Structure formats: structure tokens, C-alpha cells
Amino acid sequence: MIVILDLGSEQNTLIARDIRSLGVYTEIHPHDITADQLGALPNVRGVILNGGPNRVVDGVSIDASDAVYQSGLPLLAVDHQGKADQNLGSWPQEEEARMDVLKQFVFDQCKAQKNWNMENFIADQIDLIREQVGDKKVLLALSGGVDSSVVAALLIRAIGKQLTCVHVNHGLLRKGEPEQVVEVFQKQMGANLVYVDATDRFLTKLENVADPEKKRKIIGAEFIRVFEEEARKLDGIQFLGQGTIYPDIVESGTKTAKMVKSHHNVGGLPEDMQFELVEPLKMLFKDEVRACGTALGLPDNMVYRQPFPGPGLGVRCLGAITRDRLEALRESDAILREEFDKAGLAGKVWQYFTVVPDFKSVGVRDNARSFEWPAIIRAVNTVDAMTATIEQIDWDVLARITQRITHEVPGINRVLYDLTPKPVGTIEWE
Ligand code: XMP
Asked: What does the entry list as the binding residues for ATP (predicted)?
């Protein structure tokens, strides 16, 4: 592998992605890695010192540890003025030259092997999972999202019936999602799957709760409670599978990079329920997770699904959730997704969904006055969800969606298109 040392550059992950795209495995490590830590990493062929704009951190200049300079490994210094550090190669900043210098370093100087691919990754992980778990049992909260689905598929391949997946349907999932989880994991892959329909429980707790943050807290806390109850019914579980991926770790903040967001995992289980974690995807970037899912036989619409918030439709059924408005939301969202698929927009637009607010407007239906909710369409593009732009949807597509939603979804008599970028709006309405 090639080790990238984090000297505070925001480009660490870009370089890591570039190297992996050459078929060579790479990991990002802290700048002050010790000789022992470096020695413990398997098959290190070279080190990249990626000094970025934060190289002087809090007034203190940081550099790689002596262990790195004394390791005898080929070193490449990436200096952001494009200058070479003494005795080290330099990396020009022009895009085209970048890849050439990188290829030369990785293959000519480091003699790294092109052996990073999904088949090898899956084979290695299966061995590692079996070694870690032995004949013990693993529990996994399977939401049906990309990461938990890929972990489930990998664990099923590695340990079969030693894995139990728990799918909590909180009643706020999109149309067809719980059914797909049961179909793919239980019926096709033969997994032990505990399917919990907790819809009534969640909707009862959420009754008359209009504040978005209160709704989020209730959904999060209730989820942990239901999962915990199911876990307690199972005997002899020692491990908890988790869909942690590399950006979760990298974005948790290193010594030199600014904290982007906290690393959130299932967490929150009671003190007496401590499991050892199995996190087989923790070194993969998102696109690699998807490739892994495809290689494991998961369907495209599961592997390439758009991001979906934990509180689900709960934060799109604005204000206090009612069952009839929630159904109108679920149906309008399903129509939007179907029409985006047909129009070839599904892979192009980062996130798209409908929102149903808790007010009504007057309309005309079958020559009579109607008084119904509007459905709001939101379709945004973003790189990191911190800012977002609006997708310009073809007028004909919008007209077709409007026609279908207003005629097929009970309770909706208007369709609106949200033109607000982030900022000033957020992606979700709540
Ligand atoms: P906002 O609305 O903050 O959304 O612009 C940015 C991204 O985060 C998702 N999101 C959430 N995801 N729990 C989640 O797991 C949440 O409470 C939550 N709120 C927003 C949102 O869908 C978008 O992708």
C-alpha cells in the first residue's frame, strides 16, 4: 500500500481516490505516525507527505515524524506551492501533470502492485471477518440504506446464519423499501432477518409533535429502543456489524484537519449491551462501497439509491405527522422517483423528493370545490451536502409529475417546485 500522511491538506481524500483509481491500495494516516505504527501496516511501498494549507496548525509548524524520514521508503512531498522539499520529489499542481507524477511515483519508484480491486477486497474481508468472529454471532441494524445493505451482503457471504439482521420499519420509509429489504436479504440471500413493523409505535409517539428537532429526537430514541428490545431477545450475540465507511472516519477530523462532522454510528445502546464492532467497509469510499455491493449481487436501485435521512419521511411530512398526509407524501414521492427514473434523471440529480406541508388550499376537482394539501418537489445537486444548487428540470417532466400527483394521490391538489438553493434553504424542509 501507499501511505498518505495527513499534514492538514483538504486534498488527502482526493489523492487517496486517485491512487486507488490506479488499482493501488492507499490509506491516510496522521503525520506523527511512529515507526512501530508504520511497521505494523501491511506491505507499505511508499509514503506521500501531503502538506496542505494547514501545515502551520495553530501557529505550530508540523512535519512528518523522523520515523518516516528514516524508514528508507520512497517519499513524495506534495507541497502546495508546487516546490520540492529537499531530497524529495515534488508534485506540480496542474491537474494533467498530477496523475503522471503520481503514476511515476507509485509504479516506478515504489514498485506498487495493481492489486486493489473489489474481488480481492471481498476475498480479504471474508477471511478477516471469519477470523474476527470465529463461531460467534453478529447483529446488524439493517436500514436498507447503501452502507448497511452492503455490510449485510458481505457478512452473509462470510458467516451466513451467524448473522442476524434487524430491520426496523418506523413507518417513515419510502414506498417499497421495507418490502425490498425482506425480498433481497431474506428471500434471495437467505439471511436471518428480524423484520419489525414498529409503525404504530413511532406514529403514536409522534402524534401532535410539530417541532422538527423534537420529531428527530423521538425517532432516534425510539429506534434505539426497538433495536435494543430485539437484540435482548437474541442469545449469545457478541458482535455488532456496522456500516462505517472511510469518509465517516476521515471526516471525524484528524489532528490537522478541521472537524467536518462527528462520526455517528448506531451508538446509544445501554451500558450493559457492549458489543465488539465488525466494520468491514471502514476503509472504503462511497463509490467503492457501491462497487462492492454490485459485486455481491445487490440490485442497482439499492446500491445507487439517493441519500435518505435517518428520520425519513418524518421530516418531510411537515409539522405534526398525520397518517393520511404521510401516505400522500409516500405516494407523491414514489411518483416523483418513478418519473425521474423514466426521464433518466435518477443518476444525475443528487437528491430529489417531495414534501407535504400541513396546510391546505382551494382547488377544483370534478366540478366541485376541493380543499387539499400541496406537494412540494425538491431536486438538488451537491458535492458534500453543505451547499446545494437547484436542478433545472425539464418543463414537460414537471408537468407530467404534476398531472400524476394531482390525479393519483388522494389529498393533493397542487404541486409546487422549490427553487431555493442551500444556503439560504437547507436541503430538507425541517
Ligand atoms: P440539510 O437539510 O441539512 O440536509 O441541508 C443535508 C443532508 O443531510 C440529510 N439530513 C439528515 N440525515 N438525519 C440524517 O441521517 C437527519 O436528521 C438529517 N437531516 C438532513 C439530508 O437528507 C441531506 O442529504
From this structure: 143-149
Ligand 1 atom 24 nearest Cα:
307
Least confident of 3-12, 58-67, 74-83: 74-83
Distance 306 CA to ligand 1 centre (A): 12
| Residue 222 grid coordinates | 425510539
Residue spans of the domains in the chain: they are: 2-109, 118-303, 322-417
- Residue of the CA atom closest to atom 16 of ligand 1: 309
Task: Report, at the CATH architecture level, how domain 322-417 is classified.
Answer: 2-Layer Sandwich (3.30)
Q: How confident is the model at residue 250, as a pLDDT? A: 77
pLDDT in tens, 361-386: 999 999 999 999 999 999 999 998 99
Query: Do 2-109 and 118-303 show the same overall fold?
Result: yes
Per-residue confidence band for 88, with pLDDT thresholds at 50, 70 and 90? low
**Are 425 and 382 contacting, i.e. CB atoms less than 8 angstroms apart?**
no
Superfamily (CATH H level) for 2-109:
Class I glutamine amidotransferase (GATase) domain (3.40.50.880)
For the complex shown, is ipTM > 0.90?
A: yes
Task: Give the distance (Å) from ligand 1 centre to CA of residue 40.
Answer: 38
Amino acid at 129: I
Domain spanning 118-303 has what CATH number?
3.40.50.620
Ligand 1 atom closest to residue 428's alpha carbon, by position in its atom list: 2
pTM of the model: 0.90
- d(CA 232, ligand 1 centre) in Å: 30
Pocket of ligand 1 (CB under 6 A): 216, 307, 309-311, 351, 385, 422, 426-428
146 is in an annotated binding site: yes
Q: Which of 18, 402, 40 shows the shortest CA–CA distance to 29?
A: 40
Q: Is 145 annotated as a binding residue?
A: yes
Position 60 confidence tier, pLDDT thresholds 50, 70, 90: confident
Contact (Cβ atoms closer than 8 angstroms) between residue 6 and residue 30: yes
Q: How far is the CA of 308 from the centre of ligand 1 (A)?
A: 8
Q: For residue 309, how far is its CA from the centre of ligand 1 (angstroms)?
A: 5
- Is 24 annotated in a binding site? The answer is no
